[in-house]
Amino acid sequence: MTSALRLKAKLPTPLVALADLAYNYWWSWTADHVSLFSSLDPARWQSCGHNPVALLEAVPNERLWQVAEDPHYLNRLRQLASEFEAYRRAGQPTVQGHHRHLWASQVAPHLSADRPVAYFCIEFGLHESLPVYAGGLGVLAGDSLKSASDLGVPMVGMGLLYRQGYFHQHLNRSGWQEEHYAHCEVNHLPMELVRDEFGQPVTIKVDIRQRTVRVQVWRVQVGRSQLYLLDTDRSDNDSLDRRITSHLYGGNPETRLAQALVLGVGGVRMLHALDIEPMVYHLNASHGAFALLEVAYREMRYSDADFGEIAREVSQRAVFTTHSPVSAASNVFSADLIESFLGSYWPQLRLSREEFLALGNRRPDDPWDLFSMTVLALRLSSKANGVSHRHGEICREMWQALYPDREVAQVPIGAITNGVHPRTWTAPLMMDLYQQYLGDSWATPSVDSDRWADVDKIPDEQLWQRHSLLKERLIAYTRSRVQSARQQRGEAADEIAAVDHLLDPKVLTLGFGRRFSPYKRGELLFSDLHRAIRILAHARRPIQIIFAGKANPADDEGKRIIQRLMEWCRHPALRDRVAYIEDYDMAVAKLLVAGVDLWLSHPRRPEASGTSGQKVCFNGGLNCGTFDGWWAEGYKPGSAGQAANGWVIGKVNPDSDSDSQNRQDADSLYDLLGKQIAPMYYQRDMAGLPRQWIAMMKASIRSCAPSYSSDRMVAEYLTQMYAPTPPPTVSR
Ligand SMILES: *Cc1c(COP(=O)(O)O)cnc(C)c1O
User: Rounded to two decimals, what is the model's pTM?
Assistant: First the structure.
């Protein structure tokens, strides 16, 4: 019996539809979702980490029966269940085998459920209840699967199931980050182990370290998309191999290489075992690049052609999205390690050691170069892209050496700017407002941007009132998180009580939430402490800021930044104005991006593309960031009759990123905050409304919502990168 059937058997008949909803993450991007599950048992909903399957299993029977007799609840359930049914049905093939009702069926008739896009990524961020993501890369992958589902683009995700997930962050009394891992109860997650017709788990084998590793797979439903998560934790594997997929980014180079083999080679074998024959292989970052070797290997078994010829053919179906703005990225392995793991693989590809290693070397003639997964992915994909236009330019420069016969401008790396899934990242209160003033169509995925002009129809009072509510909620949440963190650390009673004065809903509120690594410059605001205090603790125009984000476990410099931020949180002049929320995840992110007035983003240039600022736009917040990544395209200065949609820190395209650059950018940030941003925020009319600010909020929504939606992004991938390719020319 599948887990979903087991859950249904437990539920009172009127509630059976809850099981179907719980096993498909579609519920998480409907406006009504949270209340449907949380109202069953709000306290358990929290303690289950917003996992509906774990919730339904834990709620006492009396409570379930009580709800099963509540006509109001049953009505809502029926409503949502029928919406879900309609959503799923729209994806069913017609007799001709096409997905007729969906946007993508006209654009991409070459894709279908058994010939989909296979989307490989080392992490997927669908929801806080499925801890197989760390940050931006995973969230982008999750948002892509969701938009593909909404648009009707047949897509399956391929990733790894980490039973220990990503680490939880705890700051000790000296503000130092400590990491701990929570074992996740896979049987209570909303996914199913994939079994064959005899009820046995479907497995494939991958040779790693001279041993055969058996890999099984879990299926997660994401609307009409599926996410497959590969898992080596089986009793018939060696204990070392069982742990290959235990931690996300937790391992040494050996484990990372083993993970890359399971994801790439194992992923392709598993797709085959599931009878899925992808039309397109999309590598989101390079971790899955071995997939393309495996596809080539499968073709070579039926062909006399050499690897080069087959690889060219495979590359026609391969798309690679690169995320790094620097070439010395982490995803590299020593030749020795590659040899010990893949030494038996390259003869099967009819390659010599040197030929194989050259595939991952930046300079093919340099035997000492490290084997780079990015180089491998670039060599084996005919289409590649960066994640913003600026980033695309940087990638073309950075990788020109791989294309010695081409000018920089001709390097075949394009750009598709990141976007975020609107129905995931817009707070329900705002969704409701859009529904009223833009109509149903606001949530319908399409590539049409005109409808967002109707944001101007939203009355200022309403926009402001909803935004203020979201901000109050964020502040209440921040206080309770800070309070329990202080309690856990065993801080003094007055420290704990001081939380009551932390943050003020009337004060201009900034947000900064992302990984703490030195290049993101998380402490730029405090580069000059005296100036920072003058601005934040200003008597009439105060400013407060909420920080969140983890540092990589190995990044001591990042941890020191967090430690210094914790000092500012305790500084007598700043203690009510600066807050840090520990253990950043998607649940915190949703509250943060919806509740802040202004988002700060000031990484050292160049950066690929942030996405949090885009999430902020969908909720009416403003951005203040360096002219880089998506903001270099998204920023719109004001014009006659139109408000600007945010602010730019520092000079456009400066050429240095030294200490003096930090000073210039900090200077610029202080100037903006003190002279433009705070004065505008606190300028109120008779009704107490900051009219100019609200005009900017509308400009932010109107200009960014259509452009930085993952619907637009997936549509661009579909038309530019997933286009049908000419039939193979290789003779069989
Ligand atoms: C959106 C998101 C990120 C990515 O943030 P960037 O702005 O792209 O750096 C990271 N973590 C979480 C939890 C997110 O929701």
Answer: 0.96
